[in-house]
Design brief:
The complex is a heterodimer. Chain A is an alpha+beta fold. Chain A is built from five helices and 13 strands. Chain A has a nine-stranded mixed sheet, covered by helices on one side. A two-stranded antiparallel sheet of chain A has the order 4-5. Chain B has one domain. The chains are: A alpha+beta, B alpha+beta. At the A-B interface, helix 1, helix 2, helix 3, strand 1 and strand 4 of A face helix 1, helix 3, helix 4, strand 3 and strand 6 of B.
Chain lengths: 231, 287
């Protein structure tokens, strides 16, 4: 009898401590995880309030809306298609240093490695020159075979040489752009490279360098006005 | 006797606390506040920014309403049951909203992100061209979005979302500083073979207009350093929520629940997307 009474008392003590602690726990949890509780409450709300609009629309009205909606979809799809490139284009991924050459339908013709901008800030006195490949949509402005590289000022700054005049012969370097070069504006190009072993790495001053065989295909696939997407 | 009294007093007070917390932090915001504000109710400065876009949208809408009268409608779309027809109309209107957003953004000169939860893909697009596509390995969408097939949801999704704030464990661009000519002359360059860049662990939180939060996490297990960074970022956002909840206890007025979409991507894809996305990112949802 005594043992039973003791058990009952212990049980009561446990309850007396457990219930307030439980409530306190719930209170703390509710403050700590409010978004999770709210998320659960939305589920309950959907059950009680209903999860869709119960507009009293006639079947005829709905069908008319379906027709209108389908028409709008078809029309928008057509407009979207009109925005897509009409010529083959190239997509360059600067994070992975890869390219994808695609035809006008968007089908991949060739993928491969390339080298893009090294994301470097060159500090020369008070000057800060950024070497990065620009992102966005560009287009092939012109194509040239065996194009010599006309060295910009930064090439001399980088090598610690005095900057020559704009028309100086020392600016011309033959062979470093490879066999083909496609200009995409602002001095940026897709061209070949002497450093084939660096393909797949970010090492350029902003241009996109591509291996010889891939470059040949790209050169002959893309024409003036072809889109170049860089991301 | 004393114990019993103390028990009842403590239990009653705590129960009241719990009920008060439940009402002020959970029930009130869920029942009285719409977490999905209308796309058309954007802030004035946002309207000014997107003025051009809206104009283009209106033109597109007008054109859409007037064109394509001869388009054939699949029989399957017209159902005998009103409930089915309503559901189909809802799905069509969702698709319409998606395409409309895509067209709007394709007319702009910027990249945008499309999260397609129908095919479970994240797509980086520009001018309607898919630049990068990757599989969404796992996703979690707040009940405030996925439970309701209402006009409020359609209105909320009707236009692209504009990013307001981005937090990430990786930098957008990892710049390296070099001093000319001592670090940059040809002799030095040739000596140092460039190493492939190491990918940091990715956890990205993006807050968009219209009360949307997008969380992008990587599928791979992070390393020790990454774990610390990710935990710190998670705690930072939890702390904000806790502060809001405590404030709501004193003011009895909590902000509407923030609909959150969490996605898990392969680490390399998450990195590519984050680095490629423009600062003024725009997002389209397909659900």
């Amino acid at each position: 009898m005594e043992i039973e009474e003791k058990k009952e008392r212990t049980f009561l003590k446990v309850i007396i401590w457990t219930i307030p602690l439980l409530l306190l726990g719930i209170f703390v949890l509710m403050i700590l995880y409010t978004p999770a509780f709210q998320n659960g409450a939305f589920k309950v709300k959907a059950v009680f309030v209903g999860s869709s609009d119960s507009e009293a629309k006639s079947l005829d009205g709905i069908e008319k809306s379906v027709l209108k909606s389908q028409r709008n979809i078809n029309s928008t799809e057509r407009k979207l298609d009109q925005l897509k490139p009409v010529k083959p284009y190239i997509v360059v991924n600067t994070t992975e240093n890869r390219f994808s050459l695609r035809n006008a339908n968007g089908d991949t013709i060739k993928t491969g490695t390339c080298s893009t901008g090294k994301n470097e800030i060159l500090i020369a006195g008070s000057k800060r020159i950024l070497f990065k490949t620009p992102k966005g949509m560009f287009e092939v402005r012109n194509k040239q075979e065996d194009r010599p590289w006309i060295k910009p000022d930064w090439a001399f700054i980088e090598d610690g040489l005095p900057i020559p005049s704009a028309r100086s012969a020392s600016r011309v370097e033959v062979g470093s752009l490879g066999d083909y070069a496609l200009s995409i504006g602002d001095g940026y190009m897709i061209h070949g490279t002497l450093y084939q072993r660096f393909l797949g790495l970010p090492v350029t001053h902003g241009c996109v360098r591509i291996g010889d065989t891939d470059l040949e295909l790209i050169y002959h696939t893309l024409s003036k006005g072809s889109k170049v997407f860089i991301y | 006797m004393k114990n019993k009294l103390a028990f009842w007093i403590i239990t009653s007070v705590l129960s009241l606390f719990v009920i008060y917390a439940l009402v002020s932090t959970v029930l009130m915001p869920v029942l009285t506040k719409n977490p999905l504000p209308k796309a058309t109710q954007s802030a004035p400065e946002e309207k000014a920014k997107t003025g051009k876009t809206n104009k283009a949208n209106k033109v597109n809408k007008a054109e859409n309403n007037n064109s394509g009268d001869d388009d054939a409608i699949p029989d399957s779309l017209v159902s005998n049951s009103s409930k089915d027809a309503r559901q189909k109309l809802f799905e069509l209107r969702k698709k319409e909203a998606l395409l409309h957003s895509r067209l709007t953004l394709a007319n702009e000169d910027s990249m945008y992100l499309v999260l397609d939860f129908v095919s479970n893909t994240a797509i980086l697009e520009m001018k309607g061209v898919r630049l990068h596509e990757c599989r969404i390995l796992d996703s979690d969408i707040s009940n405030s979005i996925k439970m309701f097939h209402t006009d409020a949801l359609l209105n909320w999704m009707a236009e692209p979302f504009n990013v307001k704030h981005v937090d990430a464990t990786i930098p957008k661009i990892s710049w390296v500083e070099k001093i000319a000519p001592k670090d940059s002359i040809e002799a030095n360059k040739a000596m140092v073979e460039p190493a492939p860049t190491k990918l940091g662990d990715v956890y990205i939180v993006m807050d968009f207009n219209r009360n949307l939060r997008l969380v992008i996490a990587q599928n791979e297990k992070p390393d020790v350093e990454g774990k610390k960074l990710i935990s710190a970022m998670r705690w930072k956002y939890s702390e904000i929520e806790i502060r809001k909840s405590i404030q709501s206890l004193t003011k009895f007025n909590r902000e509407p629940a923030m609909p959150q979409i969490s996605i898990v991507l392969p680490k390399s894809d998450a990195t590519i997307l984050y680095k490629a996305l423009p600062v003024n990112l725009k997002l389209i949802l397909r659900m």
